[in-house]
Amino acid sequence: QVQLVESGGGLVEAGGSLRLSCAFSGRTFSNYAMGWFRQAPGKEREFVAAIRWIGGSSYYAPSVKGRFTISRDNAKNTLSLQMNNLKPEDTAVYYCAASNSAIRLNLETKDISSWGQGTQVTVSS
Prior knowledge:
By secondary structure, the protein is mainly β. It has strands spanning about 5, 10-15, 20-25, 35-40, 45-50, 60, 70-75, 80-85, 90-100, 115, 120-125. The strands form two sheets. Strands 2, 4, 5, 6, 9, 10 and 11 form a seven-stranded mixed beta sheet that branches. Strands 1-3-8-7 form a four-stranded antiparallel beta sheet, with no helix packed on it. The protein starts with a strand and ends with a strand. About 35% of the residues are buried.
């Protein structure tokens, strides 16, 4: 089993920035895809971004492309999401996620084998 622990959420004004981090433990991740999802109140959980643990190829949801950057540190077993130019519609609980089976990077919730506990991001207008 993989354990995922997020940190870095908070309250920020529109146009501001936040950086989320996710620490992994429990397994080796050589064949994993790692990613971020988010869930706003009353809405389904949606894909934000993903990265291949080996190779570093990445993929973004159209709503965040050009504003968010996903990265990973293989030596420290951490995943990060740099979020710039935040908008009120980015307000949600953000979840770190790991998939040991996904072939593509536009992940869906059914692809996820492990979830973090979530961290709240609130963007005020």
